[in-house]
Amino acid sequence: MGKILIVGANGFLGNVVLKYFGERAIGMDMCPSENILEIDITKKEDVEKVFVENEISDCIDFAGISLPTVCEEQQDLAYKVNVKGQKNILEACSKNGANYYYSSTVRLYDANGEVANEETLVKETNYYTKTKILAEEQIREFYKSGKLKKAIIFRFSNTFGKDSNEKRLIPTIISSITNGEITLTNANTKFDMLYVKDILKAIEIAMEKVSGFEIFNVASGSQLTMQSLAETISSKLNNNSKVSISDEKELIHPKISIEKISSLGFVPTKFEEALKEILD
Fold first, then answer.
1. Pairing between strand 181-184 and 56-61?
2. Confidence label for 48 from pLDDT (cuts 50, 70 and 90)
3. Which of 14, 22, 176, 280 could pair with 9 as two cysteines, CB 3.0-4.6 Å apart?
4. Interior CA angle at 6 toward 278 and 147, to 5°?
5. By the 8 A CB rule, do 93 and 99 touch?
6. Residue 195: pLDDT above 70?
7. What is the pLDDT of residues 216-255, one digit of tens each?
8. What string of DSSP letters covers 166-225?
9. Largest CA-CA distance found in the chain, in angstroms, rounded
């Protein structure tokens, strides 16, 4: 059995997946750390070398610039990493017969408040989503041309879990409540919150039960308002912090259908259960 390569292994999601697969996996990232190879995905020869030297059978790709503001301000760099860099990974998978799994996003769906399934049209709303759409198109073309035997795209919703970046939504709310008070803007805006362990479930399902080319929405399948998130967290913390609302405006996000992956056995973790694991 070959190794599983985790690209972007120093990021929040990549690191969780790397630890989950343990000795079966090898990680690479532009920002190295212990047991993670320092590899720039924009350098084709370096990427190819990793595949050859480690007998990679499966590649799970979390690499890329994901902050929309950075993509907007540095478009050339975003294209170089998110599109050209990804192509180098696809080429290496093709040459070495590796299966490819790609981390995409539900942000590609138009935020019209309707239910979005995998057949829903995607829309370029900023330069970040443009690069993700281009990356998905590359994957599709590689598979159609016979360069990949298996290619899976995961469109993840908003993720959370232990040790996530303190600037993410849930850690920000927890920190604010712990400090005594939180003021919410867009309190009625609804979010689909995906527990990071559910990403592991989706990957295992794709590896064991799926062949060919497929796209899967991976989300909780339910929505929570910003206010309900804050109140639930405050209750779990046994904290009487005041939750104030400064703006009643509601931003509309599509509800994400997970019917397709659920038909293969995917069951998302309830928010309250995930929160208990994080806070314990």
1. unpaired
2. very high
3. 14
4. 140
5. yes
6. yes
7. 999 999 988 878 888 888 878 776 666 666 666 666 678 9
8. TTSHHHHHHHHHHTTEEEESSTT-EE-EEEHHHHHHHHHHHHHH--EEEEEEES-S--EE
9. 59
Q: What is the separation of C-alpha 153 from the centre of its chain, rounded to a whole number of angstroms?
A: 10
Which token pair is 167? 């600037």
Instruction: Find all residues with CB under 8 Å of 6, minimum gap 6, and list them.
Output: 14, 17, 18, 21, 25, 26, 27, 28, 60, 62
Residue 99: strand, helix, or coil: strand
Segment holding 59, helix H or strand E? strand 56-61
- Rounded to 5°, angle at Cα 211 from 210 and 217: 50
The separation between CA 167 and the C-alpha centre of its own chain, rounded to angstroms, equals 16
**Which residues, in sequence order, are bridge partners of residue 3?**
56
Tokens 């919410």 found at: 184
83 DSSP assignment? I
> Distance between CA atoms of 188 and 185, rounded to whole angstroms?
9
Asked if 207 contacts 58 with a C-beta cutoff of 8 angstroms, the reply is yes
CA distances from 233 to 151, 181, 204, 237, 259 (A): 38, 12, 29, 6, 28
Q: Would you say how long the chain is, in residues?
A: 280
C-beta of residue 18 within 8 angstroms of C-beta of residue 25: yes
Which phi-psi region, left, alpha or beta, contains residue 65 (left: φ > 0; alpha: ψ -120 to 50)? beta
Q: Which pLDDT band holds residue 167 (cuts at 50, 70, 90)?
A: low
| Angle at 174 (CA atoms; ends 180, 11), nearest 5 degrees | 145
- Whether the CB-CB separation of 226 and 188 falls below 8 Å is answered with yes
